[in-house]
Design goal:
Length: 144
């Protein structure tokens, strides 16, 4: 199921549907974060919000992000450098991280291809990928 927010009306519906109090700060912050699909580390995210919405507190920023994470509107993952990345694309997908450039790319796979990759990874590595593991959370890293 695709979870996208295209405008502030979509956000209002999301908040109402999930019984979340609608505040001006949440609405403005949600729209700022979700209107474009992108990957931001923590400092980039804070800088973007502070420059566009200086009246939004740091607590509101992270409370709202946690809300969006809980409802699948955003994803959060850590990369090898220790940075936390926030992905504003709520649709199920994978990530390809290029260590040499620091770039993160969204990778969308058909179910059949995803199953083939999962089988190859299980065969090649001593990992346990449970059926609960969401392949959208898997981060594939390219060596430098």
């Amino acid at each position: 199921m695709e979870k996208t927010i295209k405008n502030k009306d979509d956000l209002r519906v999301f908040f109402e549907k999930n019984g979340v109090s609608l505040t001006r700060q949440r609405l403005d912050l949600g729209y700022l974060l979700l209107k474009e699909k992108r990957h931001l580390n923590t400092s980039e995210l804070i800088e973007m919000v502070n420059s566009s919405l200086p009246y939004v507190s740091r607590a509101t920023i992270f409370n709202t992000i946690n809300l969006f994470l809980r409802y699948g509107l955003m994803q959060k993952f850590d990369i090898q450098s220790g940075a936390t990345i926030y992905d504003t694309n709520g649709t199920p997908h994978h990530h390809l991280y290029e260590e040499s450039t620091g770039e993160i790319h969204d990778v969308f796979l058909e179910k059949e291809m995803e199953e083939k990759i999962r089988a190859q990874v299980k065969k090649a590595l001593p990992l346990h990928l449970s059926s609960k593991t969401d392949m959208g959370r898997v981060l594939i890293t390219l060596p430098v």
